[in-house]
Specification:
By secondary structure, this protein is of the alpha/beta class. 31% of the residues lie in helices and 19% in strands. The strands form three sheets. Strands 10-9-8-11-12-13-14-15 form an eight-stranded mixed beta sheet, sandwiched between helices. A five-stranded mixed beta sheet has the order 2-1-5-3-4. Strands 6-7 form a two-stranded antiparallel sheet.
């Protein structure tokens, strides 16, 4: 019988630097005995003097915690995958609650203890607590991103609830950032949530984004989109962009000095009235959820240094056809912001640039 065993970093010296081992055993207890015969010293690291699994060690069989199965008597069968998860992995001291909370992602080889440490230390800014920002912030908090900033100047309206999952009926009339903070804090007390109940301007954005590792743009207007893009390019901050309308969505990730920016893709906004807003044309809530989750996924991949980001790629989806496409686009050497000879070197009046009358 072949059982695949995933070995964590602290035990890999015993297993001769092997991360995956094939062994056998009728149950977890016998598996550990067999592993110890092949790799002496492993059992004493995993089990105490009574032979019980140490309290700072968790073992998962096919993603299920054996503490909620039959303990070390949990039966094994051909093809099962066993993951050994210590509370300290890669120098990370996680509490038992944190091990349990993040267990389903810690067992992923791409994350592990080191990756979870990166997430807990990371700082992400979510601009807009609406259709995109709500699901993005929710999944970032669930994954354990340690600090999440929320920017939004609006209050919750009844028509928001169809897609903005951080807000409930009782929240109508509340500032969105406060409503969102309440839900994120209830979801994960590990996360520090900073709120900015304001509208981003050329005077305040640089100071705010300077405090964060990655920016997620869930704004709903062109002036903010161009402002955020330019500020991130000037500050060398990674940015995850998404846009939604009706049944359509698009997303890309911008890493300054490594790929194109938003202006490389769209040098200028459309004339006022040419592209309707969601308020005018409508939006199905699930599309907002899909794209917000794409943004969260890109942010997590960036923090973890895993996978391939949407840098220089525009992901386009249509929910009616359930069609997803990726289009390649390049950095424009003539881009006014990130080009070889940029003509824009400071933030400007974006309402005027986008043909929108400033509020107030």
């Amino acid at each position: 019988m072949n059982i695949k065993v995933r070995i964590p970093t602290p035990l890999q010296k015993i297993t001769k630097n092997q991360t995956d081992i094939v062994s056998d055993g009728q149950d977890v207890r016998e598996l550990i005995e067999n592993l110890d015969r092949e790799y002496p010293g492993l059992k004493e690291r995993v089990c105490d003097e009574k032979g019980d699994i140490r309290r700072f060690i968790n073992i998962f069989v096919n993603g299920q915690d054996i503490r909620f199965l039959e303990g070390d008597g949990t039966k094994l069968k051909e093809g099962d995958e066993v993951s050994v998860i210590p509370a300290i992995a890669g120098g990370v001291d996680l509490s038992e609650d944190q091990i349990e909370r993040y267990s389903r992602q810690i067992i992923l080889p791409e994350i592990g203890g080191r990756g979870q440490e990166k997430l807990l230390k990371a700082k992400a800014l979510v601009i807009g607590c609406g259709g995109l920002g709500s699901p993005a912030a929710y999944y970032l908090a669930g994954a354990g991103v340690g600090t999440i900033g929320l920017v939004d100047s609006d209050r919750v309206e009844l028509n928001n609830l169809q897609r903005q999952i951080l807000h409930f009926t009782r929240d109508v009339g509340q500032p969105k950032v406060e409503s969102a903070k309440e839900k994120l804090s209830a979801l994960n007390p590990d996360v520090q949530v900073n709120t900015y109940p304001l509208r981003l301007t050329s005077k305040n954005i640089l100071d705010i984004i300077a405090q964060y590792d990655i920016i997620i743009d869930g704004s709903d207007n062109f002036p903010t989109r161009y402002l955020v893009n330019d500020a991130c390019v000037f500050s060398n901050k990674p940015l995850v962009h998404a846009g939604i309308l009706k049944f359509d969505g698009q997303a890309t990730t911008i890493i300054p000095n490594e790929g194109p920016c938003y202006r490389c893709l769209f040098p200028e906004p459309p004339p006022p009235g040419m592209v309707p807003s969601c308020q005018e044309a409508g939006i199905i809530g699930v599309v907002a959820g899909m794209l917000g989750i794409v943004q969260a996924t890109e942010a997590l991949k960036f923090i973890l240094g895993a996978g391939e980001l949407l840098v220089g790629k525009l992901l386009i989806c249509n929910a009616l056809e359930m069609n997803f496409r990726k289009l390649n686009f390049q950095r424009n050497p003539g881009c006014v912001v990130c080009g070889d000879k940029p003509s824009i070197k400071e933030l400007t009046d974006y309402e005027q640039f986008c043909g929108v009358r400033p509020q107030g």
